[in-house]
Structure formats: structure tokens, C-alpha cells
């Protein structure tokens, strides 16, 4: 009889050991200084930041990778019990979502001082860390320069039926809709989304949209600028037949989206978390944007953009307070339009 | 002492209180996802729920999903049965090779297959693309049981029919086909459930199903009511399939009565048909194996040495193996009490225990994950985003796979041996370890292997539930291929296929031994 129990307990011990080894490998955030970042920014970009930050401070960073809105809503659902210390996004609506739930701590003043006022909310509950411009990517063989839409709103017109696409389920596109909502109001947005449902093809993301436009079906697409510049800088594999059209004129289609970073109030590692944010908006962090291959715009510490990009100041972006972008409402409107 | 044991004899091997408790707990756990969906529907309120369910988008998703099942399952059945018949019943050249070849696509995860097809034909999208990719991924699920059944059939019946004047077509339709019914229904059901649950393969070709739409909703609003309502409809689809299969299965008997010795059937000579048949087999092989292997090879060549980032690959491999091993071990352990009850008891409880597991297994990973995220975040925060939770989800998802193996193994253990052990004074647990476990070890090993591979290639539940910092092979493959960095994704695709090969071989050899699965 004792032999039997011994064997059973060996089996159980192995199970428990396997589980706890796994658990331990993921519990680095228990260390006094190390932090967990809910990362909705591109993994490659944040990894560059993390590598430089860890090298400088010795603080280790664990990433949870996800989309803007998914992680934002997740933080709201987790509330005070969240394991996250820092939240990084590609766009600001998810930041506003978390801010409105009262989950952010104030960002340190010196950090905020590095960032010009138009790239952060007036509340100081989070800060912009990078920026990206909306563009219309089009196939040069399919669309002549004089046929280009003058406004994003034109894409809901019948002449664009079946001719454009976007990464509908992604936060990037939803941020553009949020800007439209803030600029033109609910009725105009609802009507535009209805036209979009008629006209547009849904792709999983920006890259897929651009690649499809490059192959000529559809003719054009709404994406962010840097996907195109990145492909151009490398192989041009997904963009050689395309060009970019900037809407300019403060059109909703000229929207510049601010990527955000914030520290969770519930974090027990406030110091490390604030340090990480300070690092990203500091010279070294912003230079990663300039010199790396992300092709996103730096917004702080007076670091200039990658020379391949048109200057941010020339894009005639509409003025939108990043705190007012409403992710929840956008999801609801897009669900209502049958896009989600 | 001896007398007491003899008196207790008939009770030996019956489920005791410990086994019953564990089984009960498992049954309770299997109802968590279902209960979550139902409670969400109530919490959302009838009017809002109706608004979220009865809208054009849901109709579209339903049309897509039903269209996919209605097109793919019959094609897979035709293909699976046709191939099995050619390989088992004709003199097609190279017959020793075709069996393993048509089992091999099981080693290629559907989302890897999709990646291969879409990079070979970048314009593929929509229903037709979904049907092609799903057929190439899933037809072995019909082929394997059909081939096993054909091999086992007693040729005497067919010979009698032929002697009575029936032609080969009539013999196939009247004698062979009805006997393949269980294989066709079982395989067809499995394929249909896979179709409902698949996420990655269909996103890649821009084909919307309930599962992809639930994921989109999850991305846009975490665990919002719209996603839960979609999940409710998806669950309903699964239950309809289960009920449909049970209804079609009927109560007919298929086993031969009396012993007798089935002989090998005389193979049909293809003659001038050999070349076209060989060509057809080659087309299927190219579609199911050629395209993925060629594409992965091509991307590996293009990517060169720099896509082999061994730190990242090693980390992903380590995490994947850790999760898969833990889940395989735990799932196999959990399968024992359930299988024990299923084999050794005929009570209503036994049937319920088994049935509950199959219902959960029919729920797509995304529904189970969605339920567990919400349940843990609300009621068990310490478990939220832990390895324990993700492993628990794997257990729920893959218990039936382990169960099939373990039950078959357990059924072959002679109760007499256990009785002897008990009568020699060994306790129940000791008897279990020294007799039962030893005899069922091969079955348990194959159960663990099946679960291992399922976890190693699992995507949706892992994406939603995994602890911070987790990047499994499937997750890395997914994020790289999502950015259309096909070259960097290729090593992960290759590793996942290689990892699944031994288990596919095991499945193949098992299906040769035991007909029917």
C-alpha cells in the first residue's frame, strides 16, 4: 500500500513542480523594481525601448502584448487588482478609456514637461509618446491623382463602392473613427460608417490593407503612414505600386493619432513605472523613434522625425483633444453599422 | 480476511467516493463556460440581447458559418471515403505509402495551412478559400476511421452480394457505405466542430465566422456583451451539430455476429484507371502537404539564417513545451476517473459525466477562454492570468481527446487481475497503480501525446488567457504572420509541424490497430 501512495504522490509532485516552474518563470514582476507593461504598441518598438531602459536602469520589464482597446478594457475590468504597472498604446482612445475609469496615476511633472501640450491630455493623467498620421494609400495604376478623395468623408460616396479597404477590427482604424466622431458628431459618423459598410473591404490590419492595395484590389485604403515608409525603406514588397495621399486641410482624414503611455494608480512599483515613462519621452527614448525602423513620429524632447518622413508640422492635422476620443462609443457605432 | 474480499469481489473496480468526487468536480467545471454564456444572456437583458443577436451582421456570420460547414463536411467525407476506398480496396501502386501520406496533414495546424495557401495565392479569400483550406486540413479526420473500417469489414458479405448479382457500385452503396456510417458521422462531426472553432486560418483569408467575429469583438471591447451574445449563438450551433449527429447515428448495429475470421478482400484492379486515380491522389497530396511544405521551405530560403533567432525561438519553445507538458499530464490524470466511471459503471451518472465532457469539447476555445477570463476576473482574481488558469482551460478543451484513449485502454484491463490484487491484500490505490495503471500506460501515453500536440498548436485560448510575458510558438507565429512577415514566421511553422509528426504517426498506427477510433 505505501508503494502505491508513493507513486501517486510522485506523479502529483511532478505536476505541481511543472506548474510552479511555469509560474515562477512568469513572476519576475514580484521582484522589488521590475515592472509589467501592458503593451499595445508594436512589440518590436517597445522591445527596443525596454532593452535600452533595462540596460540603463537594471529594471526588467515583462510585456503583455495585445490590442489597444482589448488591453484598455481589460485594465478597466481588472480595476485595482491589475498586475499592470504601465500601459502603452498605439492610439489615444484606449488611454482615455482607462483615464475615465480613474485608473491612472498622475504622470511626473518633469516627464510631462518634455512633451508639447498638443501631444498630451490637459489632465496630465497620461502622456503622448509617439505619433502617427492617417493617410490614404492608393494603387497608382488604379487611381489617377485627380480622382483622389478630397476628404475622408468622400469614401462613403457611391463612386468608392468596392474600391477601398481598412483594418476594421484594429484599434488604429477605430481611432480614426473616434476622431471623425469628435470632429463631425454622432450622426455624420453613423452615416459615414453606413457608407463604409457598403463600400469597403475589411482587412485584419494595416499591413494586410496596404498589401492588398499594392496588388490592385481594392484601389485604395485608409492606413497610418509608417507602414508604407517602413516597407519603402526595406523591400518595397508590399508598396511598390502604391503612393500616399495626405488629406491635409484639417480634414478628419488628416488626423494625427497620439500613442499614449500612462502609469496605473494600482501599481506597487510607482517609481520604476514613472522612470520607464520618463525614459520613453526622454531624448534616448525618442531617438529610438528617429533612428530605429518604426518610422513613427517622435513627439517629445525636441527630437526630429526620421528624415524620410514629411515633417509633422506640415500635415495640417485637425485639432482633437486626445482625451475626448471615445473608444466605447466607436465600438458601439461600428457594431451598429454591422462592421463588427 | 479472504472471505471478506471475496464477498466484496463484485464491487472491485467500481468507482469509489474519491473517483466520484473528482469526476463530479470535473463535470461542474465543464459547465462553467456554458453557465457563463447563459448568465451573460440574462445579464444583458432580453431587449439588448435580442438587439445584439438579431442584426444583419449576425445573419451574415450565420450564413458564412453554415455555408462553410455545409460545403466542407460533404467534400471532406467524399474525399476521405474515396481515398480510403482507393487505398484499401484497389491495386493502386504504392499502397503502403498512401496511408501515412493521407494521415500526415493532421500534423499541419490549420492556420499554418492557411498561411501557406495565402502566401502561394495572395488573392485567396472568402468562402471558397475557406473550404479549400479547411478541406486540406481536416479530410484525414474522415480518412482515418473510414480506412480502418474498410480494412475490418468482412468481405464475405460483399462477396455474397456480388454472387447474388450486384455490380461493384451497388455493393459499395448497399453494403460498404452503410457500414461506414459511424466513421463518416464521427469524422464529419469532428470536422464541423473544428470549423466552428477555427480562428487563425479564417482570419488570414478574411473569411468571417462566429469565432473570428467574437475575437474581433474581444479586441474592441474585451469581454463585452456583443461578444458574449455571438458566443451564445456559436454554442447553439455546436449543440445543433451534436444533436444532429446523435440523431443520424441511430441505433443500428454494425458489428458482425459470431466470430468468424475476416479475410483480406480481393482488391479491385484499376487497369486503365490507374493513371487518373494516381493523378487524383497526387493532387490531394500536393494540396495538403505540398503547398505547406513548399511554402515554408520557400520562406525559410528567403529568410535565410537571420530568421532563426534562437533566443526568441528557444524561449517560445520552452514556454510551449512547459505548458503543453503540464496540460498533457494533468488532462491525462483527469481522464482516469471519468474513463473509470464510463467503463465500470452503467449508471445515468456515468453517461452524464461522459456527455458533459463532449459538450464542452464542442465549445470553441474562444468561448471557453472568454468565460474563464470573465469568471476569474470577477470571482477568482488570484487565479486570473495564471498558468493554472490557462492549463485548466486546456484541460477542459482537450479532456475528451485524452478520454477516448484512456477509456479504450481501461476497457481492456481484465477486472480479474484487479480482483486478484485486492484478494492478496493490496489496497485500492495500490491495485490501481500496480495493476491498472501499468496495463493502461500505453493508452495514457498516447492520450498525453494527443493533448500535448493540441496545446502546442492552440492559439485562441492561449491568446486570451496566458500570463503576462507568455509567447508560445503559436503566438509568435501568429503575430509575425499577422504583420505579413512570412519569412520570420516560417521557423515557428516548421517547428509546430515537426512537433506534431510523432503524434500523427501514433494516430495513424492506432487507427490501423483499432477500427473506428
From TrEMBL, chain A:
TM helices/strands, residue ranges: none
Coiled-coil intervals: none
PANTHER family: IRON-UTILIZATION PERIPLASMIC PROTEIN, THIAMINE-BINDING PERIPLASMIC PROTEIN-RELATED
Family to which this protein belongs: Belongs to the bacterial solute-binding protein 1 family.
Keywords per UniProt: Ion transport, Iron, Iron transport, Signal, Transport
Signal peptide: 1-23
Pfam family, one: SBP_bac_6
Full protein name: Iron ABC transporter substrate-binding protein
Alphabetized InterPro entries for the sequence: Ferric-bd
UniProtKB/TrEMBL annotation, chain B:
Topology in membrane: Multi-pass membrane protein
Residue intervals of the ABC transmembrane type-1 domain: 62-247, 317-507
Alphabetized Pfam families for the sequence: BPD_transp_1 (PF00528)
Subcellular location: Cell inner membrane; Cell membrane
Membrane-spanning parts: 21-42, 62-85, 97-118, 124-144, 182-202, 222-243, 277-296, 316-343, 355-377, 383-404, 443-466, 486-508
Keywords attached to this entry: Cell inner membrane, Cell membrane, Membrane, Transmembrane, Transmembrane helix, Transport
Protein's recorded name: Iron ABC transporter permease
CDD domains: TM_PBP2
Primary location: membrane
Family the UniProt entry places it in: Belongs to the binding-protein-dependent transport system permease family.
Amino acid at each position: 500500500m505505501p508503494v502505491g501512495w508513493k507513486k501517486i504522490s510522485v506523479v502529483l509532485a511532478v505536476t505541481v513542480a511543472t506548474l510552479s516552474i511555469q509560474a515562477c518563470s512568469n513572476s519576475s514582476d514580484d521582484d522589488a523594481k521590475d515592472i509589467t507593461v501592458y503593451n499595445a504598441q508594436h512589440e518590436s518598438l517597445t522591445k527596443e525601448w525596454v532593452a535600452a531602459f533595462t540596460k540603463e536602469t537594471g529594471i526588467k520589464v515583462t510585456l503583455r502584448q495585445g490590442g489597444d482597446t482589448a488591453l484598455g478594457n481589460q485594465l478597466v475590468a481588472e480595476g485595482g487588482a491589475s498586475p499592470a504597472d504601465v500601459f502603452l498604446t498605439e492610439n489615444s482612445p484606449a488611454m482615455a478609456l482607462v483615464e475615465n475609469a480613474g485608473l491612472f496615476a498622475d504622470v511626473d511633472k518633469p516627464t510631462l514637461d518634455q512633451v508639447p501640450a498638443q501631444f498630451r491630455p490637459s489632465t496630465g493623467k497620461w502622456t503622448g509618446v509617439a505619433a502617427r498620421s492617417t493617410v490614404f494609400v492608393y494603387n497608382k495604376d488604379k487611381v489617377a491623382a485627380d480622382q483622389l478623395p478630397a476628404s475622408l468623408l468622400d469614401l462613403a460616396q457611391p463612386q468608392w463602392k468596392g474600391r477601398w479597404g481598412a483594418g476594421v477590427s484594429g484599434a488604429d482604424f477605430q481611432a480614426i473613427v473616434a476622431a471623425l466622431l469628435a470632429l463631425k458628431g454622432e450622426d455624420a459618423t453613423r452615416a459615414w460608417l453606413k457608407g463604409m459598410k457598403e463600400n469597403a473591404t475589411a482587412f485584419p490590419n494595416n499591413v494586410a490593407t496596404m498589401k492588398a492595395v499594392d496588388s490592385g484590389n481594392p484601389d485604395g485604403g485608409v492606413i497610418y503612414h509608417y507602414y508604407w515608409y517602413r516597407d519603402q525603406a526595406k523591400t518595397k514588397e508590399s508598396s511598390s505600386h502604391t503612393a500616399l495621399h495626405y488629406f491635409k486641410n484639417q480634414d478628419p482624414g488628416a488626423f494625427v493619432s497620439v500613442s499614449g503611455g500612462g502609469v496605473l494608480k494600482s501599481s506597487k512599483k510607482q517609481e520604476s513605472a514613472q522612470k520607464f515613462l520618463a525614459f520613453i519621452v526622454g531624448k534616448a527614448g525618442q531617438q529610438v523613434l528617429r533612428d530605429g525602423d518604426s518610422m513613427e513620429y517622435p513627439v517629445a524632447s525636441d527630437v526630429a522625425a526620421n528624415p524620410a518622413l514629411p515633417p509633422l508640422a506640415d500635415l495640417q492635422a485637425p485639432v482633437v483633444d486626445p482625451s475626448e476620443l471615445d473608444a466605447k462609443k466607436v465600438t458601439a457605432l461600428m457594431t451598429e453599422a454591422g462592421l463588427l | 480476511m479472504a472471505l471478506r474480499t471475496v464477498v466484496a469481489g463484485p464491487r472491485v473496480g467500481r468507482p469509489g467516493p474519491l473517483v466520484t468526487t473528482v469526476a463530479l468536480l470535473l463535470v461542474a467545471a465543464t459547465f462553467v463556460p456554458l453557465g457563463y454564456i447563459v448568465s451573460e444572456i440574462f445579464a444583458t437583458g432580453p431587449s439588448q440581447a435580442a438587439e445584439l443577436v438579431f442584426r444583419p451582421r449576425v445573419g451574415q456570420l450565420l450564413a458564412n458559418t453554415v455555408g462553410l460547414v455545409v460545403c466542407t463536411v460533404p467534400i471532406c467525407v467524399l474525399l476521405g471515403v474515396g481515398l480510403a476506398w482507393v487505398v484499401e480496396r484497389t491495386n493502386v501502386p504504392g499502397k503502403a505509402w498512401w496511408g501515412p501520406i493521407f494521415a500526415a496533414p493532421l500534423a499541419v495546424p490549420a492556420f499554418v495551412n492557411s498561411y501557406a495557401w495565402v502566401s502561394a495565392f495572395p488573392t485567396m479569400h472568402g468562402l471558397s478559400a475557406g473550404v479549400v483550406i479547411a478541406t486540406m486540413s481536416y479530410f484525414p479526420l474522415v480518412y482515418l476511421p473510414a480506412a480502418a473500417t474498410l480494412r475490418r469489414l468482412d468481405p464475405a458479405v460483399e462477396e455474397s452480394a456480388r454472387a447474388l448479382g450486384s455490380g461493384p457500385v451497388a455493393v459499395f452503396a448497399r453494403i460498404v457505405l452503410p457500414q461506414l456510417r459511424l466513421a463518416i458521422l464521427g469524422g464529419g462531426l469532428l470536422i464541423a466542430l473544428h470549423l466552428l472553432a477555427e480562428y487563425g486560418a479564417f482570419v488570414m483569408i478574411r473569411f468571417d465566422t462566429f469565432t473570428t467575429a467574437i475575437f474581433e469583438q474581444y479586441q474592441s471591447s474585451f469581454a463585452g456583451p456583443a461578444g458574449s451574445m455571438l458566443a451564445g449563438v456559436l454554442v447553439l450551433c455546436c449543440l445543433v451539430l451534436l444533436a444532429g449527429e446523435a440523431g443520424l447515428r441511430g441505433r443500428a448495429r454494425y458489428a458482425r455476429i459470431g466470430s468468424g475470421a475476416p479475410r483480406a478482400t480481393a482488391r479491385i484492379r484499376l487497369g486503365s484507371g490507374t493513371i487518373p486515380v494516381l493523378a487524383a491522389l497526387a493532387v490531394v497530396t500536393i494540396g495538403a502537404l505540398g503547398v505547406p511544405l513548399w511554402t515554408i521551405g520557400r520562406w525559410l530560403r528567403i529568410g535565410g539564417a537571420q530568421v532563426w533567432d534562437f533566443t526568441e525561438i528557444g524561449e517560445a519553445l520552452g514556454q510551449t513545451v512547459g505548458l503543453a507538458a503540464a496540460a498533457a499530464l494533468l488532462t491525462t490524470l483527469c481522464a482516469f476517473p471519468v474513463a473509470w466511471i464510463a467503463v465500470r459503471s452503467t449508471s445515468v451518472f456515468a453517461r452524464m459525466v461522459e456527455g458533459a465532457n463532449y459538450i464542452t469539447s464542442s465549445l470553441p476555445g474562444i468561448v471557453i477562454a472568454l468565460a474563464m477570463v470573465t469568471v476569474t476576473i470577477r470571482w477568482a482574481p488570484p487565479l486570473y492570468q495564471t498558468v493554472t488558469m490557462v492549463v485548466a482551460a486546456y484541460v477542459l478543451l482537450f479532456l475528451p481527446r485524452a478520454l477516448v484513449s484512456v477509456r479504450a485502454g481501461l476497457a481492456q484491463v481484465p477486472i480479474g487481475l484487479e480482483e486478484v490484487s485486492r484478494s492478496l491484500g493490496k489496497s485500492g490505490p495500490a491495485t490501481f497503480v500496480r495493476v491498472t495503471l501499468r496495463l493502461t500506460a500505453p493508452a495514457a501515453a498516447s492520450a498525453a501525446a494527443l493533448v500535448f500536440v493540441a496545446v502546442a498548436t492552440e492559439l485562441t485560448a492561449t491568446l486570451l488567457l496566458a500570463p503576462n510575458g507568455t509567447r508560445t510558438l503559436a503566438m509568435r507565429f501568429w503575430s509575425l504572420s499577422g504583420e505579413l512577415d512570412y519569412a520570420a514566421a516560417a521557423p515557428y511553422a516548421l517547428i509546430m509541424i515537426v512537433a506534431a509528426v510523432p503524434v500523427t504517426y501514433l494516430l495513424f498506427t492506432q487507427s490501423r490497430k483499432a477500427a473506428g477510433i
